[in-house]
């Protein structure tokens, strides 16, 4: 995890974006010697940051690397909770597994596990999630909401809204949600969300919100079987997308919606979710564990359950299914 001094340094550059900061100012601010400041600056350069140093003016960050390290994400981060503690590893089996372990170790709410590559990434129903190196966002966020256990599925829908908004913030692309947690661009999947729970019968210990987002893949980066159904932000935008910028946007949107949810309940989230939903009002096919249901998607309940009306007028509550539009 990044050091407290490094966090203070990056916070200073964030607060004074584009400005020069003198070595003495930084030393006084973060509580270290000017020699230590120089060492921190050199460490940032080693990570790929491009810094300008001018005598009597100080240091200024000119360019950041396309990395998802704690330092890269921290620069420009303005959240109070989510992302303030980041566990970064270059390659992992699964960020979800690490987040579960940290959850039991009582790390603070908002702690994030992120990797440049996952070798065993997974989505809903234990499906494999293709997570190649240096192309996407593979992360898990630890939340500790004081809510009843039956309401925890609402957090998946909340996360879908946050990611959709973050994509629009960073790229200008119009994203949509396919129930419950697939984010689509031009009908192709760009993001999946996997929410897992640790709880006792009477209380939630923690929720792990796993987010996998395709950012800078080309079409040929996807396995042949996915090329017709998956896409990336850069494919749809037609240009490179900075991953750390996307991550910061997700953290910002997620934190704001999470606070809104805790204060006002699910209704504001539900209205937002339905405004982004691609399937509401359309005929869909729901493949459930007990069979196939085809009908018009009417919307979601206050608990996040999808309601489908079949051709005979019967209304079905869908708790878990694969949806085809």
Automatic annotation (TrEMBL):
Give me the residues that bind biotin, please. 118, 122-124, 189
Keywords assigned by UniProt, alphabetized = ATP-binding, Biotin, DNA-binding, Ligase, Nucleotide-binding, Repressor, Transcription, Transcription regulation
Q: Is Ribosomal protein found in the keyword set? A: no
- Give the enzyme class: ligase
A Pfam entry, by short name: BPL_C
CDD domains listed in its UniProt record: BPL (cd16442)
| DNA-binding region (UniProt annotation) | 23-42
Top-level taxonomic group: Bacteria
Q: What InterPro entries does the record point to?
A: aa-tRNA-synth_II/BPL/LPL, Bifunct_BirA, Biotin_CoA_COase_ligase, BPL_C, BPL_LPL_catalytic, HTH_11, Transcriptional_repressor_C, WH-like_DNA-bd_sf
Give the E.C. number(s): 6.3.4.15
One Gene Ontology term of the molecular function aspect:
biotin--[biotin carboxyl-carrier protein] ligase activity
The UniProt record lists the BPL/LPL catalytic domain at: 71-262
Q: What does this protein do?
A: Acts both as a biotin--[acetyl-CoA-carboxylase] ligase and a repressor.
Protein name per the record: Bifunctional ligase/repressor BirA
């Amino acid at each position: 995890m990044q050091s407290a001094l490094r966090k203070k340094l990056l916070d200073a550059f964030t607060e004074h974006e584009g400005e020069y900061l003198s070595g003495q100012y930084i030393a006084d601010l973060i509580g270290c010697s000017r020699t230590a400041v120089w060492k921190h600056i050199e460490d940032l350069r080693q990570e790929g940051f491009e810094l300008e140093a001018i005598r009597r003016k100080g240091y200024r960050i000119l360019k950041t690397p396309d990395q998802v390290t704690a330092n890269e994400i921290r620069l420009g981060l303005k959240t109070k909770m989510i992302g303030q503690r980041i566990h970064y590893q270059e390659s992992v089996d699964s960020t979800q597994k690490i987040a579960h372990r940290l959850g039991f170790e009582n790390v603070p709410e908002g702690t994030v596990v992120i990797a440049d590559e996952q070798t065993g990434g997974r989505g809903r129903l234990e499906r494999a999630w293709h997570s190649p190196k240096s192309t996407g966002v593979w992360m898990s966020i630890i939340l500790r909401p004081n809510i009843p256990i039956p309401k925890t599925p609402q957090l998946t829908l909340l996360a879908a809204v946050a990611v959709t908004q973050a994509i629009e913030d960073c790229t200008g692309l119009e994203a949509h949600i396919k129930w419950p947690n697939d984010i689509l661009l031009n009908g192709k999947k760009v993001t999946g969300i996997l929410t897992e729970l640790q709880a006792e019968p009477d209380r939630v210990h923690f929720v792990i919100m796993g987010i996998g987002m395709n950012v800078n893949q080309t079409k040929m980066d996807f396995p042949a079987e996915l090329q017709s159904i998956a896409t990336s932000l850069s494919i749809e935008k037609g240009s490179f997308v900075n991953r750390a910028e996307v991550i910061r946007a997700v953290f910002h949107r997620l934190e704001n919606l999470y606070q809104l949810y805790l204060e006002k309940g699910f209704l504001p989230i539900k209205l937002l979710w339905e405004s982004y939903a691609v399937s509401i009002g359309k005929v869909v096919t729901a493949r459930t564990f007990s069979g196939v249901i085809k009908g018009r998607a009417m919307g979601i309940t206050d608990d996040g359950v999808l309601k489908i009306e079949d051709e005979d007028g019967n209304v079905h509550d869908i708790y878990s299914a694969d949806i085809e539009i």
